[in-house]
Amino acid sequence: MNLFDLKGRVAVVTGGNGGIGLGMARGLGQAGAAVVVAARNEEKSAAAVEELGALSVEAVSVRVDVTDSSSCRTMVEEVMQRFGRLDVLVNNAGTNIRRQPQDYTIDEWRTVIDTNLTSAMLCCQLAYPLMVEAGGGKIINIGSMMSIFGASFTAAYAASKGGIVQLTKALATAWAKDNIQVNAVLPGWIDTELTRRARGEIEGLHERVVARTPAGRWGTPDDHAGIAVFLATAASDFVTGSTITIDGGYSVQA
Asked: Are 90 and 140 in contact (CB under 8 A)?
């Protein structure tokens, strides 16, 4: 028995057309899964599918706005029409608006919470009956270092990512009886489009991150491929409700 084999499985990765999502999609696909890249930007998704195809990964893209419940439902319906199953759900889609707490508008707050947290709950609800019917499934929620740390400019983002951890624990306890394992990954400072913007907005961020990280570097999207495979396969069948940091030691450095 190959504990890390995903042949015959179907994995949906929201926000899978770039950054951490694409890094996880590469890992899942190379372990044998068919990968659904679910995101808003169709051009970017097409490029991601082409990249995955060059790695001999079966991949398709589905357009979805994760803040729209009808769009999420349509996405899941398309996955079922195409593949007839949904085994792995990676809730990776996310956004951030950096403000001091007193400066957020309520619309900005809702945008971040709806994109990062409410969407995960919605996609999990839609995936649940399909996984029950299949006899089990795997859900991987993407949190953040801001799930455990605070920063003056991330009130909305930190609230959403802290919520991801607690949502993960609640779903894990509720759905363990259905053989559905739900876990969260907490990326540290990863070199993505989102964090490149942060480096432009926050003076000295790059230097502070490297100085605090024992690994001495920023992470890469591909640093998340292995954990995605572990949490999506039989290797993690007795792991649920866990939060796993992928941060080069950032969170344990004094």
From this structure: yes
Which stretches of the chain are assigned E, i.e. beta strand?
Answer: 10-14, 34-39, 59-63, 88-91, 137-142, 180-187, 243-246
Domains in the chain, number:
1
Give residue-wise pLDDT tens across range 44-58.
Answer: 999 999 999 999 999
Buried-state track 84-115, b at ≥16 Cβ within 10 A, e below 16: ebbbbbbbbbbbbbbbeeeebeeeebebbbbb
**196, part of any domain:** yes
DSSP characters for 180-207?
A: EEEEEEEE-SB-SHHHHHHHHHSTTHHH
Query: What global pTM score does this model have?
Result: 0.95
Which residue's entry shows tokens 């999506």? 232
Token pair of 142 as six digits: 């993407």
Task: Label residue 1 by pLDDT band (50, 70, 90).
Answer: low
CATH number where 213 lies: 3.40.50.720
Question: Cβ(82)–Cβ(70) under 8 Å?
Answer: no
Residues with catalytic roles: 157
SS3 label, residue 250: helix
Residue indicated by tokens 């939060």: 243
